[in-house]
Amino acid sequence: MPAVMSTETDDLPIIQFVRPVPGFPEHFRYVLTRVADDGLLYVLRSLDDPSVRFLVIAPIPFFPDYAPEIDDDTLDLLDVHAADRLVVLLVVSAGTSAAEATVNLLAPIVVDRVSRRAAQVLLHEEFPLRAPLVAV
Fold first, then answer.
1. Once rounded to an integer, what is the mean pLDDT over residues 7-24?
2. Domains of the chain, with CATH numbers?
3. For the segment 96-113, what is each residue's pLDDT rounded down to a tens digit?
4. Considering only CA atoms, which of 49, 17, 42 is closest in space to residue 116?
């Protein structure tokens, strides 16, 4: 995860969703924290209710060819007009073992590196909702 995602507040990146994550209409502010030192797995936790949290990953280490097209409406909503300002995060559904974990490639979370505004996007491309995280 890029260093630009840190903030002065406890050195934790505060992310403000411009629209709520589906299923969580009351939660707009989240904090992003690294789970392990390798920087591969993160937790996105609601500041309004710490029990609301998502495991997320950056796609490149796991899906190097993943290049979703973000629609103009989302870019306008985030007030972003340069793709290099975006960070893409994928939501992980943990199974009982690493081999059972899946990743949502259909609805990534897109974060503006500068403003830290975010939105979960439903892509118009054909990506799986539950892609295996680890090849079996």
1. 76
2. 3-132 (2.30.290.10)
3. 887 899 999 999 999 999
4. 17
